[in-house]
Specification:
FAD-bd (chains A, B), FAD binding (chains A, B), homodimer, Glutaredoxin, alpha+beta, FAD/NAD(P)-binding domain, disordered C terminus, oxidoreductase (chains A, B)
Amino acid sequence: MGSIGTQNASVDEVDVLIIGAGPAGLMMANWLSRLSIRTRIVDKRGTKIFNGQADGLQCRTLEIFDSFDFAHRVWRESNHMLEICLWNPPSDMDPEKPSVVRSDRIPDTIPDISRFQQVVLHQGRIERFFLDSIKENSIRTSCNGKGAEGEIHVEHGVLPTSFAFDETKAEDADAYPIEVRVRHLTDEESKPAQKATSANGTAVQDGIFRSNLAADDTAELIKRSGALDAKAGREETIRAKYMLGADGAHSWVRQQLGFSLQGDSTDYIWGVLDIIPITDFPDIRMRCAIHSASSGSVMVIPRENKLVRLYIQLTTTNSEGGAKLDRSQITPETIIASAQRIMRPYTITYKYLDWWTAYQIGRGSAIPSHYENGMNVSMQDAYNLGWKIAGCVKKRWSRDVLKTYQSERRRIAQDLIDFDHRFSRLFSGRPAKDVMDEEGISPAVFKEAFVKGNMFASGIAVDYGASLIVAKSGDSAEQGDGTKVMLADQASRVVSKQEFATEIKVGMRMPSFKVLNQADARPWHLQELLKSNGTWRVIVFPGDIRRPELKQKLNGLGQKLAESKSFLHRYTPAQEGFDSVIELLAVHAAPRHEVTIFDFPEVFRHFDSNNGHDYNKIYVDDESYHEGTAHAYEKYGVDPSVGAAVILRPDQYVSWVGAMDDFESLQKFFAGFMLEASAEVQNSEQRAHELAMEVHGATGNGVTDAVAKGGDNVVAVRQADTVVNGAL
Amino acid sequence: MGSIGTQNASVDEVDVLIIGAGPAGLMMANWLSRLSIRTRIVDKRGTKIFNGQADGLQCRTLEIFDSFDFAHRVWRESNHMLEICLWNPPSDMDPEKPSVVRSDRIPDTIPDISRFQQVVLHQGRIERFFLDSIKENSIRTSCNGKGAEGEIHVEHGVLPTSFAFDETKAEDADAYPIEVRVRHLTDEESKPAQKATSANGTAVQDGIFRSNLAADDTAELIKRSGALDAKAGREETIRAKYMLGADGAHSWVRQQLGFSLQGDSTDYIWGVLDIIPITDFPDIRMRCAIHSASSGSVMVIPRENKLVRLYIQLTTTNSEGGAKLDRSQITPETIIASAQRIMRPYTITYKYLDWWTAYQIGRGSAIPSHYENGMNVSMQDAYNLGWKIAGCVKKRWSRDVLKTYQSERRRIAQDLIDFDHRFSRLFSGRPAKDVMDEEGISPAVFKEAFVKGNMFASGIAVDYGASLIVAKSGDSAEQGDGTKVMLADQASRVVSKQEFATEIKVGMRMPSFKVLNQADARPWHLQELLKSNGTWRVIVFPGDIRRPELKQKLNGLGQKLAESKSFLHRYTPAQEGFDSVIELLAVHAAPRHEVTIFDFPEVFRHFDSNNGHDYNKIYVDDESYHEGTAHAYEKYGVDPSVGAAVILRPDQYVSWVGAMDDFESLQKFFAGFMLEASAEVQNSEQRAHELAMEVHGATGNGVTDAVAKGGDNVVAVRQADTVVNGAL
């Protein structure tokens, strides 16, 4: 799709405009490229980043990457962190001989919470995987997005200069109420301010004072594209149905919306070194928290290749909180000297320095936890929002679904801030000298915080509150951020019966255990079946279908599902695949050898006159030849003599749990927000809009605070009264 | 490296010339690209193949692919076969109602023999992965191979027209005794004969009578490159130190060497259909062997996507063995009709036909087993040979090592033929009616053959005989193909003490179990540490090094290894990495938490003044956080209170097993064939040549037979008296 000539040659219309091509913006573009949404993504930077910026990737982030088919690339290239080692002063320490000893070890990722474990990989590679995925998706879907070849591609060196929102078009689903003017920058303009120094013959990136309030402006090692100048100075108008701000803490989008950000006063200074260490410290390839008695703390994060990131508490702390320090005070040499004091009696030095910086941060906010979580949370924000917007653009569901973005993600942001505060007090504090030392932090308390923090940091603990797409009991406002996200009509509310599947928690992501394909006996992690392709899923657990009463229920359900008025059909456009909007899967508990797919109603093994049966919808919880038995029913808390059914959102979160044959609840749930795929689309949309909820602007303290903490963040804009603003 | 202007502009000199770019040729090119050997690879075909030619990939082939870092691509794209279902007439069959029932199920891959299981993927994708790997390797190693960009790339549409071997240069390691003249073909000339028919609107590849004697000449769906004509008619002379013939059963290379091939007479006809089946047969996604009472047999091979390959015994068999059938007699329709008769009462048909063919094959040779093994064996031939040639080119070891190619691989070829014969008798025969029916094949006998065949078909059972690089007791000629491959000097012979590691069998490939990196606790399959990079490896199993006597032995060994006269140093050129020729690894059995890498002598954790210690050489057999405990010592048959040491070849085969501190045997073993990396290289080579063995030409019946069976095959040529000829 080229430029639209409605007014002049420099006006383009797209469904979604994304501002910012960091991990959050790329996550969004990736979603939209999968779902064939007309999208443009612009970034003021001249190119993607290429090194530095190493980040821990949460288990949940890897699960999401896997749903987009590139987790294996991260898994292969990243450094896997398996163990956290806690180092503290020995209890019998001679005060004249400062030293640290290993006081404890804990697993870096809590066993069994995910099929992935936390890994570290630099952001440049993650951006690469997104870019490759976007390209593949664009080719595969023949997407009518922007670009000479019909592809979505990141437009670098493009700066938004003005923003207008036409409120008169806000309620028109086919209108483009958003208008953004952009200017193409020169190569020079699009290069972030940076200063290259040199150590040991290697160009070194000096990112000094890259505080968390200026993330996008501080230095990264940028490879200059050199190709921007040809377009430089060109101006263009882009009209969009939706706009995403994923342009960081100094967000231009936020400024346009009038959200102001405040930073905390600063009083701690931390240095960061990415080095190839030369050391006799035995745990340099482990994640370590090293607390010296009086010289401060070091966090060790082993990276890919031979690199290690050290977060080092600087003893040159300026006593006047908030005052700017003279940058000449802090150098890689002063930072490593601090590490050397803290890590005594071990020695540590380096010849190769990859990147360094120093932070002045707010009281009660620790860099390490922030750093590992910020990118993950912002990508997960975009992951939460992408499918919702795509469904609105395609008129598959009501725009009310969008409001759940705010209610779900602002809560996560607040949790992250709380975690940051708690954790940083412990990390920056002085270790207790003995049990009588009440001001110091005892190793036991610190370890407990680490263990608890690990669950939070995995991203697996996220639990979304009740809404029109999470059929949970209780008060939705209390469970979220206060936004009203329930159907106005209480009689339409569907509530789960959690007891049918006690470990498939409504509001949380679907846990993954191995099941076997009935037709070919291949084991799959259940999550591998839940690719991010925009479809909702109903998974029926019919139990041991050798039991006549269960077989009868299964057949009865099959009959209802097959009817044309069933939710399985009424929301699916005739020209699209039978499973393109809602996919039906089954996991049964009879022995694999005693049944075949033909024991299931045809709706579970869709027949196509050209391609025969679909062999990829029916699975079984049974022993595999090479990978043991997962005992999926047991782990999901489903009784094989009773069964269960669940609804999963396109992002793998659990919407509903109930009886295996509760067709009525399934039908009612989808009727709450889905739009009919028929001539009555307009009427249905109208009906859905009648159920519309009041929406609160995102101006609470929580979000301001969160934004202040966040690096990247995602803001979704559609119209004045439905600003959907997810924090972080 | 461009053309050499020694005589005229059209003469080029390379270390290795490869004729044929099928899987075997590509395997060789891939090896050589990794090892920076100047290589050209030419193929008379205009392009790689793009569909059809689906092949099962053996466990061992996947292990090899993993050693080249692309097994994961195969694993993701291929169809995984988990179960073999055997179908036979029911014992109480009504003769008026022909039918088959599932009589048994067996695992497709024997559990626990490998970390991979057999999968199916079409050859075009496998060629793609090789081509990508060769490109990556060429870039990474800055290889001085052929190509405008210094890369090794396949030169398509290039036909060798003459061959000359200069015997006067045969003993000069720096000479190019082989001279081959090649002609660049037109696009039309380079397109194999093929005939496209049409069914259901889809272009269909008709490969009828693609017998196993004419594999390369029969049809494949070729995408025409259209770019060859510009060079067409150009002639060129290529001089090489070594030449590889990987140009199939009608090998031009073999013709040049005077090896003639004879085919068997033919009397069975099988049809092959690649279709998307429309069927109610419940096991269509399993590998099935279906024997009807009197209508013949069907083999089902489920493929990637929705495709299934059917091998169908045609009941239109011509009674006169060997006579050519009129091709109009066999069509996809007649083939599927046979399948329908055999598979009654189940129905099977198709609308999409991807490819089909029919074979007239020799008595006692079954297509299915041949098909699944031919490509694997030819790739494994090339895998066996590649590192040996590279080491000779680099003057790392004596050319005597090359002779082991013939002794090792011809034995495998004979085994394959024997297997083919046995298996096909069973598969083509009629099922026994009852226990009194002695002419029929009983289901129990057939099942037993399948189970035994599975071990053979995995590629894991390969067991190379004693040679100068396999320190095994016994008669090397008897264990191989008769070739003399031992050192002439019996006093130099080293013999393993298998009892130190009872399950690390000398002559077989190193089994793989998980061990943890001591420095970061990450679990690795041991084979993942054995990448194909041309290095030999010594793995020391020092046992539980908390035991003082073991710690003392370890330290003693470390001291000897560190000396400059140690095998670890004397064969390694000063300008190359310390572990580039022989890599030292350790797997200990003390609890991971009770030791660190600093409990090991420095030679196990090489220190570099720029990059610090090497953290990737010391592993431990201990419990992992997320993947259980592998019990590697137990599975390797190593006593943790005794320890062991092993030598592995660059292809992961076990050369030697002995005591953990038996430095003298290690030293002696390598002295048998390694060349000193010093000024005395010439002298050492001389010494090695004094030990040279007699070499037999490869003209035995075994090899002729094998070639007649084989599709691809590999022939290595160096000089008249050292023709190294591996069969298949």
